[in-house]
Structure formats: C-alpha cells, structure tokens
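Tutorial handout. Part one gives the primary structure; part two gives the three-dimensional structure as tokens.
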Amino acid sequence: MPIDIEHDDIKTALKKLKARESILRKLESISRLGSWEVDLKTQKSTWSDMSYEIYGLDKDTPVTLELFFSLLVPQYRENAQLKLQSALESGNPVSYQCKAIHSSGKHIDILLNGQVVYDENAKPSKLLGTTQDITEQEANKVQAQELSQVIQHSSNEIYIITLDTLEYLYVNQGACDALGYTEKELLCMNIKDINPYIKDEEILQQRSLLESQNYMLNRTIHRRKDKSTYSVQSYLHTISYHNKRACVIFDTDISDIVALEFQYKKQAKVLEYIHDSVISIDKDGYITNWNKGSTTLFEYTQEEIVGKSIAKIYDIDNEYTFEELFIILNNQGNLDIEAYMLKKESHRIICDLSLSVSRDENNNIDGYIGYLQDITAQKKTEELLKQQTQLLEKQAHYDILTGLPNRTLFKDRLSQAIIISKRNRNKFALFFIDLDQFKQINDSLGHHIGDEVLVEAAKRLHSVIREEDTLARLGGDEFTIILKDLQTIQNTSVIAKKIVDIMKEPIVINNHNLYVTASIGISIYPEDATNEPNLIKFADVAMYKAKDAGRNNFQFYSSDMTSQAFERVVLESSLRLAIKQEQFIVYYQPQYDALTDTIIGMEALIRWQHPSLGLTLPIKFIALAEETGLIIEIDRLVMSMAMKQFTLWYSQGFNPGVLSLNLAMKQLNEVDFLTHLLETMQAIGFKTQWLELEVTEGQVMKNPESSITTLNTIHDLGIEIAIDDFGTGYSSLAYLKKLPLDKLKIDRAFVKDIPEDEDDMAITKAIIALAKSLNFKLIAEGVETQEQKDFLVKNGCDLIQGYFYSPPLPVEEIQKLLKHS
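Part two.
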C-alpha cells in the first residue's frame, strides 16, 4: 500500500516503506538487477544484496568507488571513469556496458546505469544506479552470430520457403554460389523457378508428406541462372519462420553420384559379354543374373541356374557360409576372397571372388554381385613354388640339427624386433644362453650324444616361450631368445627362471642320466642398447656374469634389473605364504538402484593384509597371481569369505542384495570348479539367488565356445552371469547372444570423462541400447559425480557402482550402511 503522509504515523509509514523495499529486493533478484548508491560527499557506497551477488562478494565487504573500479577488467576502467565524470558534469543519466572480474576469477558482462542526484543547493549529492549481469545474454548473442555465419557460409545450399506460396524467405551464400543468382534475385523467386521439372502433383505429395511426418528426403534437378542443370539431394524439414508455416531445405550437389549411377547402368550391359563370370543374386541368395562367362566356367545354362540358390555352386568347405558373406557385405559393401566353387558335375575349382552389394534407387541393398575367375591352375603352380621356396628358405635360415633359426635368421629377426619396437615404443629382451657342462659331455661321450643333448635342450627351451618369440641356435651350445612385446622386467625373469628350472632336469640318452644347466645373460631394448651389435654384446657380457656367479642362473646386463627379478621371486614366495596363512581380507563396494538410492548388491574386492607392507591393493599382486596360477586359490578363498559374510548378514536380518564375485577364467576352466562352488555354497548355507559371477569380456572371448558351455551350466543353477569391463575387449556379437548373460557392466573407462567427452557418451549410449535390445540388465561402474549419474539414469542405466555412492569398504563400515538402509 502507498504511504499516506497525512494519516500514517511514523511506525506505519516505516512498515510500509520496509514492505516496499522487500518487494524491490525481490524484483532485483528476479531480474538479476543490483542497485547501488554513492554518497559523493563522504565517498561511501551502499550496495543491494544482488549487487554483491553479481560480483560474488560477501555482503559484509566494505564497498567504495575504488573497489568498484578495481572490479572492472583493466581496459574498461578509464572509460568507466570518464562516464562517471560525464554524469557528474551533465547531470544526465548514463549507461555503460563493460566486463568485470567475478570473485571466482571469471569475466562477466555487466550493464551499468547511473544518474546524479543534486541537493537543495543544486550540488551533486549522490550517485544512484543499477548493475545488471548480462553475461548470458551476451553469450547467446555471440552464439547466434556464430551459428548465423556457419549457416550463411555453408557449402551446402540452404533455403527457407513458405509452405503456402513456395516463395523463398531465406537463402544462404552457398545457394547463391551454386545457382549464380544474387540473394535479392532469389528472394523474389519460388521453388519452381529453379526446379524446372517438378510437377504440381509432386509438390502436393511432398507437402502432404511433410505435414504428416515433418521431414523428408528427395532428389531433384536445379537450374542455374545460366540455364545449366545439376542434380541435388534434398533434406526438408518443417519449421515456423517469421510466424509463417515454412520449410527449411538442405541441398547437396550429387551430380557426380548421378553420373556414376548412369555409368554403372552402361557397364551392366558390357558385363554380359565379358569372358569372366559375373553373377547377380538377391538378398536371399537366389541367382537372378547369369552371364555367358558364367556358363563357360560352370557349364550351367542361364535357364538351368537362374532362380536356383547360390549354394548349388558354392562349396560347403569354404571359410564362410554364403549367409555369413552377406552379413560382411552388408557392413562393408565389398569383399575380395578366394573360394571353392562347384562346376555342373560337382568338380571343385578355386576361384578369385570379388563381391559387392547391389542397391536399388533408394540406396537400399537389394542383392549382391560376384565377379569370378578360375585360378585353380594358378594356385597349383603357386603351391609348388611355395614348397620349393620354403625348402630353400629352411636350408638357408634354419639349423639342420635342431630345426631352429640359425645365426642368419636370428640377426634378421633381431633387426625386425628393433624396427617394430621402435615404431610401437615397445621393449623386448634378448637372452644369450650357454649350456654348462656341455663340452664335457661332448668330449667324453661323443658328438652323436652331444647332438641329442642339443636337440633335447632346444625342445625344452621352445616349451617355455610364446609363439611370437624367437628361439635360435647360433652354433655349438649357444642359444638366443628374442622375447617380444615385453610388458615388465618381471615377465622376463619368469621366463628366465623357467629355463633355469627346466634345464636342471636330467636328460636321459642311451641309459645315461646327463646333467646340463643354463647360464643366461639378458639385455633389454632400448634400456641397454638400441642396435644389434650392442644388444648381442651386452647379453653375452651378462651371460659371463651368470657364469661367474656360479652358473645355473640368469643375470641382466643392468644390475638393477637383476635385483627386480629377485624381488619378484620374493613377492611370489610371500604370496604363497599369504594364501597359506589367509592374510587376505574382503572389502565390499555397494551397488545402488539410482532411482530409489537403495543398495541392491555388492562387489567383493580382495585386499592383502601384508604383515610388513600393510593393506595392499590387488594391482600389486593379481597379475603375478594369474601368471603363477595362484589366482585359483585366491579366488576360492575370497569366494568362501564373502559367502560366509553375506550368509551372516542375511541371518542378522540385513538385506545386502546380490554378491558379485570376480571369476578368473583359470578358475572357471578348473575341472572341479563347479563341484567346489556347489560344495562351498552348501557348506555355508549360501543361496544361488544371492550370487552373481563376473567374468571379463577379454577372457571370455579367448575361448568363447568353452566359456559358453561352462557358463550355461552355472546359469542353469540359478546363478546370474555378468560381463565385466564391457566395451574394452573384442566381443563378437554372435557369441554375445549365445552367452547365458544376465547383465553387462559398463567399464569406468567410458564413464570417467562424462559429460566432457562426447565419444564416451556416444559409446555408453550404444552399450545401453545394445543391452536393452538383448534384454540384459545394466550396471555402470566408476560413477563419481552427479552429472555422470544423471546422464546414465536419463539414458536408461539405473544401477550404479562407484565413489558417488561409496568406495570399497571393510565389513564394519558396510554393516553401518546396511543398518541405515
């Protein structure tokens, strides 16, 4: 209510004034408009709450003109002072737009309005004004200008037309350049002026389609100002433009594509008369076209074969079935392979087969085309030449006695290893191996016995390396190994220790128990050397270090690496003791339903309570456990501990949900795994519906057929199966459908950079869509922020695991969560 000067007492007037001030402050908050006042006599300033909020200052901050000017970005301060001086001199209201520095350090756009108030002596008394934060408006203005420039200068033709009159309301520069008209000329035209062949009935059909579905694709002809024409592909979408029913059109010049299509049609006529076989089939594999070259090759006439399945001439022993070939072609468009084909009398030939998809006028696949050449005689000649070449190659590059690469091939392999490792920034190890006591055997028992010892030694050495590694015999009792793609020094020491151990076993020849041991020297690329001579020399030096150290051992050229190798041996010994003494404990990370914020399960995560190192994370020891096979015993220990704890929680009236256990494939492939699992559950009283087993995608795909069989048996028991770290391996969708899965677990690698990384967001959406299409449950791990949770829930993934809710916790902390859930 207004203040009544004649009737309101001071208390009532003040109350009304305070109410009006409250309304004013609310209006300021809504409009993001702050007010301020400067007493020009005392230089004291008064700011409204919104003024403080705009600059991000505490409300108890003393404010002065000097503070205000210091908040402005430096290049605006002088003009602001000039504006103030102008206001003081003229008495007129002033307005000034500038940038200020928010307390957070970011720059904000502000609009200042001010006016001088004079006292009864006509002297400047106060400066009153407002500050408005217009950062968002300025950003929108810039964005609008940028988008306008992008559209205007797009190489595509972009138009906006009215749906009623088909006149142009907007054309971009790309349209003007393509047609040769000015913008002014085009805005006086309609679509018929540049589409000379479009008919009224087509316009009616297109308008009707747009009204029903709002968009469409279309091909048409444009005519330029110089009367020349070209083909375009159009995308049309209805919009509202300047309060008119309108349509935006994006046109792309496809003249080259249309010319190619015409050329293809001409080529089809030529194909009928070429000597090579050209066969067309429909999407179901039935032959639709058969040229004269096909009759010559397969001896079927066109009348005999057209309408028959391609299976009539496609051999069943080929690598792919023809249905699988169709799937590949649908994905990549073309394919070149060699395949077995069948002539009329079932005589098998080898053909060079070039396949491509056939498309209809709407660019949909309607069949497949194959070009075939009989290369049977050529393949026989190639095979004979290959055998002769291999024989010569073997004689030139392989040791006759052991069949191993000789010195020549070894040097070539070493050179290649250096080139590849340099390119891929990988490491590799070079082993120089000398057999201890071999000379005595050779001298005392004869060369024929010595040769048999070398053959057996070669077999033993070969048994401990991978297929991609190189074992060579340089001569005498000297062997070398190139250990490629070295991940850690510890991996090298594992192989070296295996060699030392396996060579200590007696070699039995003609009732003689012969004993030889191995002294091994190791050099590492690129730490020790980056060229062949030095790598060989340093490995040789390290081998003599092993001899000097008493033989029957291995030494690195670098003494530090030798120490690391022994540290690994110590760690393995400690790990075995930890299993025996049950030094492991289990942490649990809760899994939540994000829609209700309730616990639906927990993942069991191992920790090693090391007697001297303290609580040790699995990253420090799991890799070693998997290498040594100790992972099986560790998995079983964790399984028993976690099941006992869950059973206890259920008996105490808690609801911990489903226990999720990580299952190593070595454990899964154990013959007694299922027996052990069932006996453990029965002994503890653990129910199958409480259990979920997680297997990693990469491990499953190493042997998918075996995995399917074992996992099916587990699934039939009522135990859920989840794929862990989904999206990081190399899944085959064909196998994924066959696996008895209940759940996909989205790896944290795709979650951690949401929402900043658009690629991760797209991949995550795709995984969610895939899971839903296959009727799998979904859970995302590694969720740490509200934004990540909101994104996942919005896109259909409601189950969440990660630090957003809780880190992995010991039993006592988990029990507190369960009490309050």
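Part three, for discussion. The mean pLDDT is 87. The longest strand covers residues 229-241.
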